[in-house]
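Project standup — Tuesday

K.O.: blocked on the structure for the chain from last sprint. Re-posting the sequence here as requested.
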Amino acid sequence: MGVLARDGDTTPAWTPHPWRTRVMVTGGGRVAVDTDELAERAALLRSAAAEVDRSRAHAAVAAGQVMRYHAAAVLPAIEAGRHLEDVLGVGRSLPALAGAVRGLAADLDLQGVWYAEAEREVSTLLAPPWWRVLGAVVPPGLVPWQAGAVVVGADALRLVGHAGSAAAALAGPLPGAVVAQRHTAAFAQYAQYLDDDVTRGHVLLDGEPVAVAGLTPVQRTALAAYGPLSAVGLVAQGGRRLSGLAVAPAPVVPMRGPAPPGPRGTVGPPGTLGAVAHLTTLARPVQPPRTPADLLGRLAALERDVRRRGTGAVEVLRTTTPAGRRHWTVIIPGTQAPLAGGVNPMDNATNLLALAGRRTDVERAVVTALDRSGVAPGEPVSLVGHSQGGLVAARLAADPLVTARFTVDSVLTAGSPLGPVGVPEAVSVLSLEDVRDITVGLDGQPNAHLTVAVDGGADEPHHRDGYARSAERLDEVDDPAVRRWLERDAAARAVAVPGTRTESIVFEAWRTVR
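H.V.: unblocked you, prediction finished:
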């Protein structure tokens, strides 16, 4: 657990002010936590703060006495008054001390809640009744459809009610990420039974059976939601199913006018060169990103490119040392399209499939981009992503088929729900999570890897720019696991090697008619 605070800071913990609160680090090693002891320590700190308040009251009384004897002993009174003013309101004063101690107590309270979530000591809030669990395993033919409809309707009403309680909890004192994590886990415990297939061993996914054994309730719920969302997307696409995927380097200079037709049977996105893009595209030199904040800062331009072209896009950075050794970094943006099944694969279909543990079009696009960039075996690869992009990055690092082909050394994610993803210990992962960002709680469980929880102070806690600002302060976090990650990430990207040059290639990805 790492703590970062400014001297003399009187701001209460977890208020929306950048880096004026503490930072909590979880993961990165084996840690045993006694949550009862955390509560006891917090109570002792609050008691100490009360003692400081009493000392402040005594000092104020003393100041009044000094003023009474001011005329009798002018010089001593002036000197005593000056010291009392310092104690009551200047520098490291008693009010500042009391505020800082209460802030530490609030941190311990929050960390107790967070670790309790990790240890599953908190109530599930919405466990389904025994008869609902039993009904899920009864053969469909034994249950009249009328009874099934009544049960599903009751389920839906109960879930609507739970959504209301979750919204009320989000307005409470606990950070949104903790509330979202708790309520998502509870919601999924019940919602998974809305689709009987996901509790009976398999579910059809685009016509193929997918085993659900071993999945969490959140993952099963994601699979159940994928079908209806895909149907809505199919209607939005006018009944045209885009089941293929094309990946090509984006032109450095945007085309003017309509794009030329792509290969037969494909849908070329507006503003792209389609199948001939790679013939006219060259990697362009860029300033080497030195820090994690530099990496996340590249997302803004990449997302502007996505909006202009109407496609998905990932950026591949190739860093070459004077000795000729190449290092690779892939930047993956977050969700860019609200529906599912459209031209842009960075949509909510990818969110649901990735959360459910299924391979996605965006993962295929990243692998294709690495292949076409010419990444050789043994060359270090770093993956960076925000939101959906972080989930994709972690899943790639956890995929044995990917790691058998590429040497993934480090992963940086920001605002990504990664609880179900088990990244091997050989890969160094750091996740930034804002405590007010409900998106990071949508996995319904804590991360098993190194996670830095912050209050970034942004008006929109999920926004990429807020995470970039938080990443600027990572080197100030006094935690050995964070320092080890920073060192390994810098080595993977050759940050400390003088004379390196970095070039950028942006790859577009879009769905096509197969």
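K.O.: great, moving the ticket to review. The longest strand covers residues 501-512. DSSP finds 16 helices and twelve strands in the chain.
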